[in-house]
Amino acid sequence: MIDGCGREIDHLRLSLTDHCNLACRYCTPGDAKPSGQMIDPDFAFETVRWLVEEHGIRHVRLTGGEPLLYPHLLPLARRIRSLAGLHQMTLTTNGQALEKYAVPLRDAGLDRINVSLDTLKPDAFKHLTRGGRIDHTLRGVHAAVEAGLTPVKVNLVVQRGVNHDELCEITEWGLKLGCVVRFLEVMPIGPLAHLLDQHLVPAAEILERLGERFHLTEIPRKNGSPAVDYVVRRRQSEPRPSGRGCGDEPRPSEPRPSGSGPGAASRPSDRRPSEPRPSGRGCADERHPPEPRPSGSDPSIEPRPSARGHAGHAQDPDILGVIGLIASTTRPFCDVCRRLRLTAHGDLVPCVHDPRHYSIRPCWESRRLDAAAAGRILATAIGAKLPEGPKSQSLIMLTLGG
Q1: CATH classification at residue 298
Q2: Is residue 2 part of a domain?
Q3: Does residue 98 lie in a domain region?
C-alpha cells in the first residue's frame, strides 16, 4: 500500500485487547476504565490475512493493552505466522507474565519481542506502573533472551525527575544480557501531554548523558524505522561520572561487562555471529531462569552474558552492544512512517496522533470479512495519513497499542 505522501505502508500493529494488568502513568489516566475489549480471533486473523495477501503488509506487531492477557494469543499467533507473505511477527509486552510465555511464544512462531521497562528501582517501578512487580518483568526479560526471541528490545520512556538519572545503569544492565536498550521521548499525547515541558528529556540530552560514559557510533537508519541505533563502546580514557544522569557506580558485588576498551565500531552486520545458536533458537548457555531475589533487594538481577557475548558482538569484544533512540517529539519521523493500526474494537487507525478511526468491524458478517467493503474503508484510512500527524492530546496509548 502506498499512501498519498508516497510512503509504503507495510507494518501493522494489531491490538488484541485494551485490558492491561498495569496502569502506567504515561499510558493510562488515573480515572481510565478500559472496556476489557478483546478482538475476535477469527476476525483478527482474517483481517490480517487479507492485509498480508492483498495489501502488502509484511510485518505484524501484537500489542494491547497487554497482549499476554489475551486468551487466544498462542493459537492466533500460530495462524498469523503461517501466512506465506509475512516477513516478521513481533510483540510488545510489559513483561509481567513473560517468564511463562517466552518459550510458548517462540514455539508459536514469534520472531522477536519488545519489553517495556522504565526503571530498575523497585519502588519507582511500583509507582510508575501503579502496583507492578519489577522482579516479574526482569525474569521475563531473562526468559525471552534464553528462549531466543532476540534481539530483545527493552523500551523505556525517559522522564525528567523520574528515571533520567538511570540511563547508563539501565544501558549496562541491558547490554550485558544482549538486549537492545531503546530510549523513547515522552510524547505529547495521553496523561502526560499537559506536563510535556516538565517531563520531556530531549534526544540531544539523552545522547549527551550516555556519551559521558560510552562512546556511541550511529548506525545508518533502516528504511522506515522510527529508531536511530548506535553501537556502544565504553570510554576508558575518561573518568566515569558520579552522577549527571548515569546513576551511581555499580556496587562491587555487581558484575561489570568484560571486553571494554577502545576499538572501532562494528558494521551492523557484526551484530550476529556466524556460528549457530545453541539449543535451537536460544542464545544462552544457561537453561534455567534466574532465582528471584528477596523482597527489597537490589533489583538489577545480575545479567548473565549470553553465549554470543555482549549483544551478539562475538567478533569484536570491545563493543558492548547497541542502543536505540526514538525521538518522536523533537525529531518526528512522520516522513518515514509505514504503520497502520488495528484496535481491539476493529478500528483502523492511520496515525497515533490522529483521533480519526475507521471501523471495519461492520464488514465482519456471518464470520466472513466483506473484502470489498473493507477495502473501501482501508483506502479512506490510508488516504487520511497526513505528511505530519496532528498533535492530539486526547488519545490514550492503552487503546491504540504501543
Answers
A1: 3.20.20.70
A2: no
A3: yes
Amino acid at 179: C
CA distance 208 to 213: 9
What are the mean pLDDT values of the chain's consecutive 10-residue runs (402 residues total)? 94 96 78 78 99 98 97 99 98 98 99 98 93 97 98 97 96 98 87 74 98 96 85 74 48 37 37 38 37 37 39 67 95 90 96 90 96 98 85 57 58
| 48 in a structural domain | yes
| Residue-number span of the structural domain to which 221 is assigned | 11-400
Residue 83: what pLDDT? Answer: 98
Q: What is the pLDDT of residue 335?
A: 87
Q: Which of 167, 121, 114 is nearest to 141 (CA)?
A: 114
Say if residue 243 is exposed, middle or buried (CB neighbours under 10 Å; 0-12, 13-18, 19+).
Answer: exposed
Q: What's residue 399's pLDDT?
A: 56
In SS3 terms, the chain reads as CECCCCCECCEEEEECECCCCCCCCCCCCCCCCCCCCECCHHHHHHHHHHHHHHHCCCEEEEECCCHHHCCCHHHHHHHHHCCCCCCEEEEEECCCCHHHHHHHHHHHCCCEEEEECCCCCHHHHHHHHCCCCHHHHHHHHHHHHHHCCCCCEEEEEEECCCCCCCHHHHHHHHHHHCCEEEEEECCCCHHHHHHHHHHECCHHHHHHHHHCCEEEEECCCCCCCCCEEEEEEECCCCCCCCCCCCCCCCCCCCCCCCCCCCCCCCCHHHHCCCCCCCCCCCCCCCCCCCCCCCCCCCCCCCCCCCCCCHHHCCCCCCCCEEEEEECCCCCCCHHHCCEEEECCCCEEECCCCCCCCEECHHHEECCEECHHHHHHHHHHHHHCCCCCCCCCCCCCHHHHCC
pLDDT at position 130: 87
Alpha-carbon distance of 211 to 228, in angstroms, equals 15
- Grid cell 493493552 is found at 65
Residue 5 lies in a domain: no
Q: What pLDDT is stored for residue 402 in this prediction?
A: 57
How many CB atoms sit inside 10 A of residue 348's CB? 23
Q: How many domains does the structure of the chain reveal?
A: 1
Residue 61 — φ and ψ, nearest 5°? -115, 125
Cell numbers found for residue 135: 522482579
What is the per-residue pLDDT for 246? 63
